[in-house]
Amino acid sequence: MKVSEIMTKKVSTVSPSDSIQKAAQIMQQVDCGSTPVIEGDKVVGVVTDRDIAIKAVATGKSFDTPVKSVMFSHVVTCTPDTDARDAANKMAEHQVRRLPVVDHGKLVGILAIADLARVNIFTNESGQALSEISEPSRHSNAIQQ
Fold first, then answer.
1. Which residues of 34-64 are buried (b: 16+ CB within 10 A; e: fewer)?
2. What percentage of the chain's residues is helix, strand, coil (to nearest 5)?
3. What is the DSSP string of 55-110?
4. Which candidate, 145, 2, 1, places its Cα nearest to that of 75?
5. Which value, in Å, is the radius of gyration of the alpha carbons in the chain?
6. What are the pLDDT digits (tens) for 42-61?
7. Is the pLDDT score of 118 beyond 90?
8. What local confidence, expressed as pLDDT, does residue 50 receive?
9. How far apart are CA 143 and CA 145, in angstroms?
10. pTM
11. 130 vs 84, higher pLDDT
């Protein structure tokens, strides 16, 4: 099964210059904990509710702080043609719960661990990925999404 068959195609995004408050409001509206950061059509980062809480709120930054100052810019992505099992393995390897899906550099969707879990055939892979995502980080600078 390909990622394109199970990914979410409508993705809410923010730009690097948008405020962290706008990012938080978008996450609240779509009930998720992260959103891709887009410049033009290109994914340049991901901002999570944790990034906002730890890198901004906890350090006293204002709500109009730009997303670019707290986002994670080492984005792990996949393509619509990526095999869903490979995507689950990539999530586990990089300890992320969501993968932006890009086609020729353009954001076309997002794949969440929940998308994998909804497809019964991938119960083992998504369970393993979630287990590995939830382990303490193997990378000192890794940011979990």
1. bbbbbeeeebbbbbbbebbeebbbeeeeeee
2. 40, 25, 35
3. IIITTT--TT-BGGGT-B-----B-TTSBHHHHHHHHHHHT-SEEEEEETTEEEEE
4. 145
5. 15
6. 999 999 999 999 999 999 99
7. no
8. 94
9. 6
10. 0.79
11. 84
Cβ neighbours of 84 (radius 10 Å): 23
What would the pLDDT profile of 67-114 be if each residue is shown by its tens digit? 999 999 999 999 999 999 999 989 989 988 899 999 998 999 999 988
Looking at residue 142, its pLDDT comes to 42
Vertex 71, ends 59 and 110: CA angle to 5°? 140
Show me where the domains of the chain are located: 3-134
CB 41 within 8 A of CB 55: no
In the block, residue with structure tokens 């033009």: 40
Lookup result for tokens 């690097």: 16
Domain 3-134 classification at class level: alpha beta
For tokens 């702080």, name the residue. Answer: 65
Q: How far apart are CA 72 and CA 4, in angstroms?
A: 24
